[in-house]
Amino acid sequence: MNAKGTESTCCSRLWQTIAAAAALTAVWLILYSNLLTLSKWLTYDLLSISEGSHFGSAVEFFIFEVPKVLMLLVAVVFAVGIIRSFFTPERTRKLLSGKKEAVGNVLAALLGTVTPFCSCSAVPLFIGFVTAGVPLGVTFSFLVSAPMVNEVALVLLFGLFGWKVALLYFTTGLLIAIISGWVIGRMKLERHVEEWVYQAIAGEAEITSLSWPERVAQGTAAVRDIVGKVWPYVAAGIAVGAGIHGYVPENFMASIMGKGAWWSVPLAVAIGVPMYSNAAGIIPVVQALLAKGAALGTVLAFMMSVIALSLPEIVILRKVLKPRLIATFVGVVATGILLVGYLFNMLL
Amino acid sequence: MKKIQILGSGCAKCNQLTELTEVAAKELGILYNLEKVTDYAKIVSFGVMSTPALVVDGRVRLSGKLVSVEELKKLLQ
Hints:
- The complex is a heterodimer of chains A (348) and B (77).
- By secondary structure, chain A is an all-alpha fold.
- Chain A has one domain.
- Chain A has helices spanning 10-33, 35-46, 54-84, 89-96, 101-114, 122-131, 136-148, 151-161, 163-186, 195-199, 212-247, 254-257, 264-272, 279-291, 296-308, 311-317, 323-347.
- In chain A, helix 3 packs antiparallel against helix 8, helix 8 runs antiparallel to helix 9 and helix 13 packs parallel to helix 15 (296-308).
- Chain B has one domain (2-76): Glutaredoxin (3-Layer(aba) Sandwich), CATH 3.40.30.
- Chain B has three helices and four strands, in the order βαβαββα.
- Chain B has helices spanning 12-28, 40-45, 69-76, and strands at 2-7, 32-37, 53-56, 59-63.
- Chain A binds chain B through residues 88-90, 93, 116-118, 120-121, 123-125, 127-129, 131, 196, 199-206, 221, 319-320, and chain B through 8-9, 11, 13, 40-41, 43-51, 60, 63-65.
């Protein structure tokens, strides 16, 4: 045994943690950078599938993409989990209450990306914001950005399309959230919020501050929770994608979802809104469609409408919003998504 | 007698929190009265914005996440 092991001070524990983190990072990097070689070796040497066959390219794609995306997810979800421990909904509400509209919309959209959010708590969050004096439009900017611009969507986009598409998604997602919130604010729809919301008396929960070990624990919990939940979707989605990769002919989607078809964007949004899926399930399919000649704008519009506007969330929000406000909300956000779809089809 | 309230309107995590809390309370062997609060106006009155939440004797002890039974035991005492 090592004699140094007897140092039982705070610092030896700290060093242990740092060493463990460094070791884990190193293992992660080595594995990640060798995935392509590994997947080729597994497919063609170990499973001895003939190179160049449809089946071979499908299997290689699957064996490469699944661990790659999952490894990226683990790393990013952990980091975001730690960042999120700094942004509780209570703190975000404090930052947003009493803000002027334009500035408030921008801030709300940005905070929406880092504040922990689950569509199941959309209602208490909405009431909490509105009764604390956060303007209605600013609240909507938050409610649009929180589900749409999330780390799982960004990781998948980065992993399967590269950083340019991920950045485009991030920026346009924020813009849609900012602008649609601002538009809803301008429309003065406060009276279309259910009356009882404004009569609700929101209490103030105490804001507790966390220690670093607690933040790391939250990061780990986020990995267990999120990656534990989405990995089957990632695997299933990539399997479908792999099938399409290997078998569906090149440019098959071009006639249906290509740039030439003007109606493809509205159709993609119309199909996307009632669909309910998380980013993890939808993106690998989207990637396969794109590879077969679908236009990027159309595909992004489809994805955004699936993630940002979902039927279950609309049903939940009906408890606090009257039908007209719901319809406006869906209409404004869908219009934003349409514009983004057309814009990308035009530019790229 | 501890007054335990679980805030949340029927999400999967709310039910899980209820089960875990009951396990924790039984393991501690305390007398308790558990109530599920599903009314949004009432949930918000505690200042809670992310569900599920755990309220013990009127104090919010946990919000927006699940923790282990061991952790819950500490929060219940």
